[in-house]
């Protein structure tokens, strides 16, 4: 019977034990416990451990796992740990890792160490790593691996099987072989399972699946992920514009892309960088975040500046000061709901013109309906709270106006940002609150000035 | 040479053409163009198309793709489209789909149609679908498929190859066979590539990889996703607590889980449900969102109520009304940054006690540093704006207090929610703004009352 994987509770316990052992500088116990984790788990442990313990743990990871762990670390943490490696350890990396990971890591190395790494590779691998490094990291070329096994269409299964036996070790997760012509052009794939279920004298071309396309080397990583998802691929060949086979992308790298995309969206909303070490020294971290706080301060000050034109009104009706944040917040929330729906629909990548317009119309209608409902509810509430029907009316009307404004801004801002190639996840929230704060203050104070003050004069 | 997949621009054009054809009720053109999309793309198109056109397009999807399209639709849209199917079409689903998808879809069918579907299945499949339906959807049992190919360890490669040839069609993305004993207990796996590279008289047990564990049937889906990611699996066997083989999970279903998790996190932040049809009728959609707006209103009113105790102060210093939203917003942004870091670190699943405490300490320190910096900057600014040093001091001090409060709340709220098994993505933002709004108003108005009013009396 095979071992069952650890439950999340057991994993948590194991992590705590490792931290305890590391804290006590218990080398033997740390090393023993670390052996129970796979490299990806070690990478996560290192990312979520403060620097002092992190280095101790890192030094006691089995050297043959160094490469895999580095491959799974985020950029900032990886760069720091790479600085601790000596020549021998860098040379060891060269032996362990596949070319896509080597290319990734090489980019975080100092020039000197990069040279050591490249020298330690054999000719084929060095060419492969240098090729991978020549493509942008976030394209098919940056994701691909050089461990392609390709065969010609005019040979028999028997020949292929002999060839595979000669190769000895085959790449992980090998599902199909790539079929090429004599000039290394991509023709399609043949499944390993088809090789097994056909007679040995069958020609490869009879089993060829020519309908599976290859991925162009400059395809953006997020489009590669979409192709894999839409077609349920486990791997795919990468070709240049002349259809020459360059490498192979496997699903495990695509899964990492999908995770990173999701993390990026989440972090960008708060103006954070997903590549940052969560244990960056506080002063550095504070400085980086100050920028985002500063931008936000500007938008809040802008809204306050608009409100400042109504100081006389505020001076006369102090209840407005209590209402201002409520009006702004309702518009902001309503607008965020709309913007989230629009951003998600855009991310699916199939929201074209007519559908987008239909969705925007629907969202504005939803905002209007909620505006009407909450205008009545909040208006009645304010009437009761401040005992002033006119003030209740002004409050309700401002809520209505700001919920509609929020829906309109929430629908249009992501579309406009996208058209200007600005990441909607990053900037939508900020622009949206600028609109809803300013519009909320303006509607509330403007209406109060026009309706109540003029009325009472 | 094989066809190259569509570029995103071509895909967009194709989608627009389909919508145009559907708008013009051009049946032939719609059908022809739809053939260029894979089922997952058709599903995305249907989700992002308003109901009138959606039904027209759906009716012209090739019937043999109905099943795969349904399998990729979100629940609400799927349920609506299933209602349009007649008996014959439901029976057709039974033929096309794998048992995991059938179990999913069956749960959205009326009882009558569910019976039709189950009757159309053969004995084995019906048992498999009913088994899958008996496990919660978000567990390994709900994800698994019954298309397991398992072999005994004491047979030779030759026997296995004969068996595979008899089976004829093999499941998609078959990378390895599951090895069992005579009582259907899970022993491990054997790679197809190993079958190809060894002599035919080799026994399976010699090639057995017993180190790959099976997944327990009640493992939560998100833990299954983690196992696949950490171990770079493409498939895995599912077993019951007695280690009997029940089914198999493949990476394509895991990729869907990862996407859904990311969508859930994104939507939950705005109080939205990722299973909702984006074209839900506006009135229904408005009613659903009203709940979230209502909760937010309560928190905003609470903060205003706290501020209302300082009405006298507000009445005397009207500039405070302009400062209130700024103080609240700075604390909210700072707190959101901290909460995002903590939520992300928790999602990695390895943030245990000591590391969590170190991270919380670091975040509070970052908040304090930014608090100091922005207190000086905003204090000086307010002094200049309102020409009042004391008011500048009060404003800066309130900003400092609220940035520290935001960091503390942003660090602790997700941890506390998690301990109470409440989804931090859903409730953190709301609770955080409640804290930062209330604390911001209290600090600003309280300090003004104590320092300026007392001072001036």
Automatic annotation (TrEMBL), chains A, B:
InterPro entries to which the protein is assigned, alphabetical: CBS_dom (IPR000644), CBS_dom_sf (IPR046342), Mg_transptr_MgtE_intracell_dom (IPR006668), MgtE_N_sf (IPR038076), MgtE_transporter (IPR006669), SLC41_membr_dom (IPR006667), SLC41_membr_dom_sf (IPR036739)
GO cellular component, as recorded: plasma membrane
Family matches, as PANTHER family: MAGNESIUM TRANSPORTER MGTE (PTHR43773:SF1)
GO MF terms, alphabetically ordered: magnesium ion transmembrane transporter activity; metal ion binding
One Pfam family hit: CBS
Subunit structure: Homodimer.
SUPFAM superfamilies xref list: CBS-domain pair, MgtE membrane domain-like, MgtE N-terminal domain-like
Location of this chain's protein in the cell: Cell membrane; Membrane
Keyword Nucleotide-binding: no
Domain CBS: 144-206
Membrane topology annotation: Multi-pass membrane protein
UniProt xrefs under CDD domains: CBS_pair_Mg_transporter
Keywords: CBS domain, Cell membrane, Magnesium, Membrane, Metal-binding, Transmembrane, Transmembrane helix, Transport
UniProt name for this protein: Magnesium transporter MgtE
Natural source organism: Sulfurivirga caldicuralii
């Amino acid at each position: 019977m095979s071992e069952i994987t650890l439950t999340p509770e057991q994993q948590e316990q194991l992590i705590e034990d490792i931290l305890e052992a590391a804290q006590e500088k218990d080398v033997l116990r740390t090393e023993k416990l670390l052996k129970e984790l796979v490299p990806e788990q070690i990478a996560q442990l290192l990312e979520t451990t403060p620097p002092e313990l992190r280095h101790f743990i890192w030094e006691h990871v089995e050297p043959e796992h160094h490469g895999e762990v580095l491959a799974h670390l985020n950029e900032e943490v990886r760069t720091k740990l790479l600085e601790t490696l000596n020549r021998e350890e860098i040379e060891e990396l060269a032996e362990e890792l596949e070319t896509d990971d080597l290319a990734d890591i090489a980019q975080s190395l100092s020039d000197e160490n990069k040279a050591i790494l490249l020298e330690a590779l054999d000719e084929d691998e060095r060419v492969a790593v240098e090729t991978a490094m020549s493509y942008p990291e976030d394209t098919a070329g940056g994701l691909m691996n050089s461990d392609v096994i390709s065969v010609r269409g005019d040979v028999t299964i028997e020949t292929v099987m002999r060839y595979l036996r000669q190769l000895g070790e085959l790449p992980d997760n090998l599902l199909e072989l790539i079929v090429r012509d004599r000039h290394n052009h991509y023709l399609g794939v043949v499944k390993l399972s088809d090789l097994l279920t056909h007679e040995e004298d069958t020609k490869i071309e009879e089993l060829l699946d020519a309908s599976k396309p290859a991925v162009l080397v400059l395809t953006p990583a997020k489009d590669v992920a979409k192709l894999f998802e839409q077609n349920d691929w486990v791997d795919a060949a990468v070709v240049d514009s002349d259809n020459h086979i360059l490498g192979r992308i496997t699903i495990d790298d695509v899964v990492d892309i999908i995770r990173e995309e999701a993390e990026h969206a989440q972090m960008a909303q708060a103006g954070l960088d997903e590549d940052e070490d969560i244990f960056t020294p506080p002063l550095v971290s504070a400085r980086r975040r100050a920028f985002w706080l500063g931008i936000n301060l500007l938008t809040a000050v802008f809204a306050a500046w608009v409100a400042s034109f109504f100081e006389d009104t505020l001076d006369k009706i102090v209840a407005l000061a209590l209402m201002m944040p409520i009006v702004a917040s309702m518009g902001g929330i309503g607008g965020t709901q709309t913007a989230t729906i629009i951003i998600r629909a855009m991310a699916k990548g199939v929201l074209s013109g007519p559908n987008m317009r239909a969705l925007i119309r629907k969202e504005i209608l939803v905002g209007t309906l909620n505006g009407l409902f909450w205008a009545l509810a909040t208006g009645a509430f304010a009437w009761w709270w401040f005992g002033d029907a006119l003030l209740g009316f002004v409050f309700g009307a401002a809520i209505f106006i700001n919920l509609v404004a929020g829906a309109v801004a929430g629908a249009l801002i992501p579309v406009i940002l996208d058209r200007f190639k600005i990441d909607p996840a990053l900037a939508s929230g900020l622009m949206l609150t600028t609109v809803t704060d300013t519009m909320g203050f303006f509607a509330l104070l403007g209406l109060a000035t026009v309706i109540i003050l003029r009325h009472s004069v």
